[in-house]
Fold this sequence. Notes:
Blueprint: H1 2-42, H2 44-67, H3 75-124, H4 128-148, H5 158-170, H6 187-203, H7 206-210, H8 213-242, H9 247-269, H10 275-278, H11 288-292, H12 299-305, H13 310-340
Helix pairs in contact: 1-2, 1-3, 1-13, 2-3, 2-13, 3-8, 3-9, 3-13, 4-5, 4-6, 8-9
Amino acid sequence: xxTANSETNRKHIGYMLVTGLIALLxxxxxxxxxxxxxxxxxxxxxxxxxxxxVTILALILAGFxxxxxxxxxxxxxxxxxxxxxxxxxxNSLMLTAQGxxxxxxxxxxxxxxxxxxxxxxxxxxxxxxxxxxxSEVNSLKQAxxxxxxxxVNCGEGPAxxxxxxxxxxxxxxxxxxxxxxKDCAKVEKIIPMYDAQIDKALWSAPILVSxxxxxxxxxxxxxxxxxxxxxxxxGEIMADIQAGENLLTVVRPxxxxxxxxxxxxxxxxxxxxxKEVQSSVHPQLDLTAVRSLGDPIKFVNLIISRLxxxxxxxxxxxxxxxxxxxxxxxxxxxxxxxxTRPARKSPEAPSLVNNPWK
Length: 358
């Protein structure tokens, strides 16, 4: 009997140690998962307290189920346990093992969308006649500046007069500045004045006004500026990820800024594109995985967006099995503990004969 009791005690202690270790791992995953689920919205203190509450609640549920006939009579409570813990465990596993890769993937995809937007603008926002006209005017502007820098006559010679005549023919509002400018020392002050006048006259040219070229040009320039800015954000985000910055509080806000810039730029560009091209332009960035990571409300969206990744299935199965394992360990520990308790002695039957020695 003593050998059997000793073996039972060792078994009970073994189950207790394993249950304790698994419970520690389980608690760490839940704390980490729920803390990061809520920190961006609730802050560190509130998120930490709620994560601790959920962890304690999950441990109590697992212990209660395990010590009261396991899953056989506690199916409803086990479903509650799954709902409470699986979200935190899955999020913790995804954030720890896949978080950086998810943010890299989404950042690279965002950069590609900006590039596609820029290529679409360059390809379809074309007006060859207006572009040719602008090119001719800019060439004349440069030729005039060059002629004015000519030390022989400083812009007062026949060549300069010919250039100005051509500018007048193309830009009706263009006029020669009053006064003579034989003093070459003043040339560098005069050239910017002509440049400003030519630029102003250019945008009021009938060919550009009739084609709404200035609006199209502004939209195109905004697309190019947005692409340039996105490249800067991509560099910063990749550097933050490499440096181990918090993905949810440091990196994600920068991606959200990129998303806002993209949406605004796309909205301004779309009206100038041919109708058959508009449908090919994404109106906004798809940041489903990034936004779902660390958001309990969008937990299902995260799973759906990563279904093609085998690790998503692994983490989901682990999150579900970990609850089952913990309940089973509590059940085995409780069962082994009952076997180590000494059997109750049956009460002695009262004697019908009085014993004087008692």
